[in-house]
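ping. complex inputs:
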Amino acid sequence: MKILVVGEIHPEALALLEEKAELIKVSDEEFTSADKYDVEAIVLRTYTVLQKEQLAKLPHLKYVISCSVGFDNINMDALNERSIEFIRVSGTNSNSVAEHTMFLLLSLLRQDPRKPPLELKGKTVGIVGLGHIGKVVATKLQGFDSKIIAFDVIEQDPKLLKELKVEMKPFDKVVSESDIITVHVPLNEHTKHLINNDAFTKMKQNIFLINTSRVEVVDETALIQNQQKLRGIALDVFSDQLKSQLTTYHILTNHQGAQGENSLRNMCVKPVEVFLQKL
Ligand SMILES: NC(=O)c1ccc[n+]([C@@H]2O[C@H](COP(=O)([O-])OP(=O)(O)OC[C@H]3O[C@@H](n4cnc5c(N)ncnc54)[C@H](O)[C@@H]3O)[C@@H](O)[C@H]2O)c1
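pong. complex structure:
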């Protein structure tokens, strides 16, 4: 079998694949400019776009193996139309993103040189999207004596909520009651601009906002318009244009959330293992 490997894939995952298949390794730029690849599988990360145009270059494709958790880079309808199997393993980078969120959260509270440091104790933390990452964030928050509220579109296990001391609330309540909001939803047509002008209007004055999900989940135009309302903003995902327009205290990290060493490995090795079991 021939497999196309696009971008930087963890060496352990590459070694596993090399035992079973012939690998064609290309950069994202090479993939974008190429005409066609005669491969049955593609291994990629979140930075590789796989829409109809790119899929047309892969006429014999049977498997897409994703070394990331988010899959907004991939046209799932187009995969389904061609019965291409999609393999990803949820939760493989949750710890790294949750630790990164805690780093951003505590830094926001403490590092603004113009303001006295704040304590997390007694603050209300609102988690938007209580999935794999949101739940690990709630776990990490245990012991800080903060109040944790959350919103999700999926009903949550009451036992787990009790263990994590998380109270589920409607979106508007989470937005209006939180001192710190951290966003952990996937990007799709429902979550695009979830944090929009309406949400900013409902937020308290001097709140903190953290986004480690995807750029488009926060309406950046609304963020700029409302930034005087926020005491601090931490973004792991943001557009190039945003940077120069931020005047509120901010921390920007360049999609570093999942870069922790264990996550970086697991994000690739786990789906590759799932794929190899199918051969
Ligand atoms: N910064 C990074 O490096 C990095 C790394 C991994 C993942 N991510 C992003 O984080 C997202 C979340 O990852 P995850 O592993 O927790 O995914 P997940 O699928 O386990 O959890 C997402 C949660 O969001 C909920 N949700 C969906 N639509 C919602 C809505 N409209 N309102 C509220 N909740 C909604 C889902 O029900 C689910 O519980 C990924 O989709 C990806 O975009 C970023």
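The chain has a mean pLDDT of 97.
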